[in-house]
Amino acid sequence: QGYEGLVEGGDNIKQANWLSVSNIIQLGGTVIGSARCKAFTTRAGRLRAARNLVEHGITNLCVIGGDGSLTGADIFRSEWGGLLEELVQDGQISEEVARENCLLNIVGLVGSIDNDFCGTDMTIGTDSALHRIMEVIDAITTTAQSHQRTFVLEVMGRHCGYLALVSGLASGADWLFIPESPPEDGWEDLMCERLGE
To answer: Which reaction does it catalyse (predicted)?
Structure first.
């Protein structure tokens, strides 16, 4: 469950094996779970997470997420030494255990359907989101045609219009709104004229 699993520990931290990961590659979303974790935004929560990781001998993390997840990873990394010192002072771990686990390695991977991160062609999640959008468009296009109606489809993307733009191009949409290019005054008349054509 993401950072929630780190903070809670217990059965949330387990070794992946061949049986636990077989037959999951085709599933949408994340099989290992995902959760917003208020506790991890506090030092006390990160201290619990550090304790749970050290208990399992884990000093390498692969964090897949967006701005919040990656910011949390950076804070966790920068505090790691201090967290271990605090655990030693509280008697939760020995100095020897702290020395053995003194370095926390983190790899951050951008998991965002928005595809709004430089340095990569496509962020994790974008391709599957586009695939799902196109399935929906294919399904509703015949309904729109048979009813001779105009359908409006809203896609996710927060402040990034990548999904809307690419799915609009791929589906031959007649009109498109994206946050990077807000509509100019009089857009309603232009849209009606375009649809009339």
So the answer is: beta-D-fructose 6-phosphate + ATP = beta-D-fructose 1,6-bisphosphate + ADP + H(+)
Q: N- to C-terminal Cα distance for the chain?
A: 51
DSSP H helical segments within 148-196, as ranges? Answer: 162-171, 187-196
Which of the four pLDDT bands, split at 50, 70 and 90, describes residue 29?
low
Mean per-residue pLDDT, 96-123? 91
* Cα 46 to Cα 52: distance, rounded to the nearest angstrom: 10
Residue 150 has pLDDT above 90, yes or no: no
Closest by alpha carbon to 36, among 78, 75, 5?
Answer: 5
The encoded tokens of residue 172 equal: 């031959």
Q: Is 189 a catalytic residue?
A: no
Q: What's the whole-model pTM score?
A: 0.77
Domains of the chain: residue spans and CATH: 2-110 (3.40.50.450), 126-196 (3.40.50.460)
90, 114, 116, 127: the catalytic one is 114
**pLDDT reading at 181 higher than 90:** yes
d(CA 80, CA 83): 5
CA separation for the pair 13, 98 (Å, rounded): 20
